[in-house]
Write a structure and sequence with these properties.
It contains 5 helices and 5 strands; from the N terminus they run H-E-H-H-H-E-H-E-E-E. It is of the alpha/beta class. The protein has a single domain (6-131), classed as P-loop containing nucleotide triphosphate hydrolases (Rossmann fold), CATH 3.40.50. A 3-stranded parallel sheet has the order 1-2-5, with helices on one face. The protein has a two-stranded antiparallel ribbon with strand order 3-4. Strand 3 (110-114) and strand 4 form a beta hairpin. The longest helix is centred in the middle third of the chain and has 16 residues, at 56-71. The N and C termini lie far apart (50 Å).
Length: 143
């Protein structure tokens, strides 16, 4: 974006890397993925004056940079929830689904998928698994 000199950027980056070396990564990183239209809708719902002036091109650029960052995050386990399809603020079952996935990731439980032919598949929750909610997913099964 060229908002600072290369020298300043390198200095900030060096300081950042030094600070990060002293900090333990989180046990679980939760990333809420959203498209720009969803982000705009959430901004409008909140009704904060200072957010209303955010330009769409800036929001898209920021969203793209977050996507690049999360794809390169390998310091620990992560869950990615697509909030375009998970309206956890309005639908308690979506929030319950998210909570179940977090508990399963933190405690190494199993997750099960039900397929259209009524067969099911259970496996350990995978490291860095991307999680999406659809009509085929069933609840976490503790065995």
């Amino acid at each position: 974006m060229n908002l600072m000199s290369t020298r300043d950027f390198d200095n900030y980056r060096s300081l950042f890397e030094l600070m990060v070396s002293f900090i333990k990564p989180p046990e679980l990183l939760i990333y809420l993925r959203a498209s720009v239209p969803t982000l705009v809708n959430q901004i409008q719902k909140r009704g904060r004056d200072y957010e209303e002036s955010i330009r769409l091109d800036y929001l898209k650029s920021l969203n793209d940079r977050y996507e690049q960052w999360i794809e390169g995050y390998h310091d620990g386990p992560k869950l990615i929830f697509n909030v375009d399809q998970l309206d956890f603020a309005e639908k308690p079952e979506a929030l319950g689904f998210i909570i179940d996935q977090i508990i399963a990731e933190l405690h190494g439980l199993l997750e099960c998928f039900k397929f259209l032919d009524n067969s099911a598949y259970c496996s350990e929750v995978a490291f860095s698994k991307q999680v999406y909610m659809d009509h085929q997913r069933v609840k976490i099964v503790i065995i």
